[in-house]
TrEMBL record, chain A:
Protein name per Swiss-Prot or TrEMBL: Cobalt transport protein CbiN
Its biological purpose: Part of the energy-coupling factor (ECF) transporter complex CbiMNOQ involved in cobalt import.
Record-level GO BP terms: cobalamin biosynthetic process
Transmembrane segments: 70-90
Keyword Cell membrane applies: yes
Species assigned in the record: Micromonospora craterilacus
Gene Ontology CC: plasma membrane
Similarity section: Belongs to the CbiN family.
TrEMBL record, chain B:
Short name of one Pfam family: CbiM
Name of the molecule in the record: Cobalt transport protein CbiM
GO cellular component: ATP-binding cassette (ABC) transporter complex
Organism of derivation: Micromonospora craterilacus
Oligomer and partners: Forms an energy-coupling factor (ECF) transporter complex composed of an ATP-binding protein (A component, CbiO), a transmembrane protein (T component, CbiQ) and 2 possible substrate-capture proteins (S components, CbiM and CbiN) of unknown stoichimetry.
Function of the protein: Part of the energy-coupling factor (ECF) transporter complex CbiMNOQ involved in cobalt import.
Family membership: Belongs to the CbiM family.
UniProt entry tagged with the keyword Transcription: no
Length: 109, 229
């Protein structure tokens, strides 16, 4: 039981360390450090193929960086919210199952 | 791994749509079939979709000095097999294309192919392979999720190299260039995604051992009801 939680914590810490290390080591470079790779690819295309014209543009574009980050936060919140809901439901269901087996009622599963 | 709106020549954009569509149709049928056959799985299926939703919204800095995001498709592919994730991945990509101007409708076929088709198939294939070779659940899940993440970005690099070969060195030169932008950046993120997927699967073995057994991830224990670690 104890090592289960400890390993989970270590996994989480490793993820945090991997994300923070590039920032802490100051690996960002250029005018705007830590730009998105998607944007860098776009720049590379424009640099090598200056005559390429994107032939289609987004139907809707968030009017500002704030709105965009709000929508990204919404996406993450929806996902995290549902995951939290799932684990809450599943944990309770599992506990009820365990209690039932403990009291000897094996009919239900 | 999002190819921006309009950044694929029309013919190639159409070709990627043609390639991806059958996978998504097959995935939709498979999804309906699995939900009908096992209504209890609906919630876990939703959780797999939610995992992709969260992870693909997280932009994480990488050693190359740029930012990228994991895909989160490995978890669902391991639990429900690859076809289902072609549907859930497409939903995520549509959400981002329509609301966030991230990726695009014209490039949806190509982005679906990399993130919602190749990623999940790599995850499922690697998972089965490592399991067969005797790898434990944690190791198998880690390899599957991390390599699926990396494979997605390699496919994006190849798609862009096909569309925009280098003026001097052609496809190979462009592949190296886009690979250094995407695939290299993605290595630490792929490791993170692997670790996070392992974490979620570990928690699932605690709270949903029955479901995992039904899906074939956990072997049936001699006595039921015990808490599998």
């Amino acid at each position: 039981m104890k090592s289960f939680g400890r390993i989970n914590l270590l996994l989480l810490l490793a993820v945090v360390a991997l994300a923070v290390a590039p920032l802490a080591l100051g690996l960002g470079s250029g005018e705007e450090p830590f730009t998105g790779a998607d944007a860098l690819a776009e720049e590379a295309i424009v640099a090598d193929h200056p005559d390429y014209e994107p032939w289609f543009s987004s139907i809707y574009e968030p009017p500002s960086g704030e709105i965009e980050s709000a929508l990204f936060a919404l996406q993450a919140a929806l996902g995290a919210g549902f995951l939290g809901y799932y684990f809450g439901v599943a944990r309770t269901r599992q506990r009820l199952r365990d209690e039932r087996t403990a009291t000897g009622d094996t009919a239900a599963d | 791994m999002h190819i921006a709106e309009g950044y694929l020549p029309p013919v190639q954009a159409a070709a990627w749509f043609a390639v991806s569509t059958p996978f998504v149709i097959h995935g939709t049928r498979n999804l309906v079939h699995q939900v009908r056959g096992n209504p209890d799985a609906k919630l876990l299926l939703g959780a797999s979709g939610a995992f992709t939703f969260v992870l693909s919204a997280l932009k994480i800095p990488s050693v190359t000095g740029s930012c990228s995001h994991p895909t989160g498709v490995g978890l669902g592919a391991i639990l429900f097999r690859a076809p289902v994730m072609s549907v859930l991945g497409t939903i995520v990509l549509l959400f981002q294309a329509l609301l966030l101007a991230h990726g695009g409708l014209s490039t949806l076929g190509a982005n679906v192919f990399s993130m919602a088709i190749v990623g999940p198939w790599v995850a499922y294939g690697v998972f089965v392979l490592v399991r067969r070779l005797g790898g434990g659940l944690g190791v198998s899940v880690f390899c599957a999720a991390a390599l699926a993440d990396l494979a997605t970005y390699c496919v994006t690099s190849a798609q862009l190299a096909l569309a925009f070969p280098d003026p001097d060195s052609g496809f190979v030169g462009a592949l190296a260039k886009f690979g250094s932008i995407f695939a290299l950046t993605q290595i630490p993120l792929a490791i993170s995604e692997g670790l996070l997927t392992v974490l979620v699967v570990r928690l699932l073995t605690r709270v949903s051992p029955q479901e995992l057994r039904r899906l074939g991830l956990l072997r049936r224990p001699a006595t039921t009801g015990g808490v599998a670690a």
